[in-house]
Amino acid sequence: FCFLDSLNGEVKPRILLMGLRRSGKSSIQKVVFHKMSPNETLFLESTNKICREDVSSSSFVSFQIWDFPGQIDFFDPTFDYEMIFRGTGALIFVIDSQDDYVEALSRLHLTVTRAYKVNPDINFEVFIHKVDGLSDDHKIEKQRDIHKRANDDLADAGLEQIHLSFYLTSIYDHSIFEAFSKVVQKLIPQLPTLENLLNIFISNSGIEKAFLFDVVSKIYIATDSSPVDMQTYELCCDMIDVVIDISCIYGLANSEAGLPYDKESMAIIHLNNTTVMYLKEVTKFLAMVCFLRKESFERKGLIDYNFHCFKKAIQEVFDVRIKVQQNRKLLSQRRWSKLTVTNGVLNNPH
Ligand SMILES: Nc1nc2c(ncn2[C@@H]2O[C@H](COP(=O)(O)OP(=O)(O)OP(=O)(O)O)[C@@H](O)[C@H]2O)c(=O)[nH]1
Description:
This protein is α/β, with parallel strands linked by helices. Helix content is 43%, strand content 20%.
């Protein structure tokens, strides 16, 4: 599901964002990656072309979003869906839960079956979106109904093996960030290693919970294996906002452009329930946010030392990834030159 970016040799998982018109695709993208406030999305214009947004420059999660206009025609010869699906890691299909979803479900079925034929490795993720207007009972009811109908359609077509994952989302709370985090985590091959490192780190430092966050999008790319509760996650998002906002206003010298986040970035917040939140820079794009009790924070020296080891280990994990990519590139170049020589072509393309 990854494709090689020819410019920098990076392997980038690609995410497609699809769904009917006005289901909320552009809003999701703007809120998650561009810090747009949810109310501003009311004024978004309808999208008329396929936009290919690369969020790699400012974010660790270097994936792409293909925002399709509502109705795409699979039979349109100018639309090369095979090429698009072949390089896709995850397909997010957005369903507007406040609207009648019969048409959305048939569109979902068509899209999923087409995509699966081209690339059976795609993760299919269904966002039951705009649930902010629904009561809790109503949400569960909708999810059950959509889940059942979508899977029945697949079963009728003899395609039970296709797995759909469902998420209840809204741009008016943190559910959209949570859902995106889960989607992205499935595409990170180093996830088990990251989780392991976090487990070792927290158990040796007296920390209760630790998240590794992509600072720009507030997607958490990994956490230790204890369960995540929504409130903790929301507090982490708020903390990142506070740190970035304060840095933007007071941290940057006037002439300085660029990210309000660097090697020195760190913050400590004492909550009134004897919990301490601790944020520290891990890499250019990643931050660790930890939750711990006040008593444990007295051993800050130990925590900082363990953090130093953790940071080094993370660096090694990503170094290995870069090396593997470079080797792969070299290998394919060699193969290519051998091929051209055996074909009697003398000029090496490189
Ligand atoms: N209540 C609510 N409204 C939302 C939510 N997400 C998006 N919207 C609204 O839905 C409307 C349509 O959103 P868009 O993002 O333009 O939808 P789109 O899918 O990109 O539409 P096209 O570009 O036409 O394909 C906007 O008025 C948004 O404010 C949500 O989570 N809750």
